[in-house]
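Why does residue order matter? Because the sequence determines the fold. Keep that principle in mind as you read this record.
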Amino acid sequence: MARRGHHTLEQIKNMVLVAAEDLVVEGGLTQLRVRNIAVKIGYTVGSIYMVFESMDDLILHVKGRTLDALAEQMEQIQGLTAEQRLEELASVYIKFASQNFNRWSMVFDHHLPEGIVIPDWYQKKVDNVYGKFEAQFAMLSPELTHTQRRQTALAFLGGIHGVCVFMLSTQLGGLNELDLEESVILLIRRFIHDGWMNNMASRITPPKAAKLEPVRAWSSAQPVYY
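Structure:
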């Protein structure tokens, strides 16, 4: 068992994050247990809670690393037009999901206990990914209001995510990553060219007092960690 004096708290924190991420990659969210992490890093369970407030705090940091990795890949796109960039953003998203399935799934499979407020630092990471799509719709249809762009981007990303979930989580014979990518490209082109974008101003009329809620990035599943 390693001694605390061998590493600074910041080093221990990074060790915990790397070990936790490895566990998720190896076996998914169900393998992310504090005892498994402790064994991997050679420290006690108590040492982990010296650097993270709770298991939920630790998981948010692991999810944040995943969102950062996805955002970093999205920042490399080279499309010349907003439509091309949307296709490239979608391509990056589905490739990341298919090549990092357990990490990607974890972002949506974990949720905070009821009553716990999402930290601002984590929400910014969610918005960073989501905002890359919204920015392209601002260029495609500058007449849209902020609320309308937000709703458009949400529907668009929701469609892409839904196709990923269906194809990556459903056991259907003969499907591969190319089928996934082609399906998403088809979705994008129909979304943009079927007049849906042109009618957004008349279709989305939110109440004047409506409050924009932050985009959430998890579902209702709540695993147990010990």
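Residues 81 and 91 are 15 Å apart (CA to CA).
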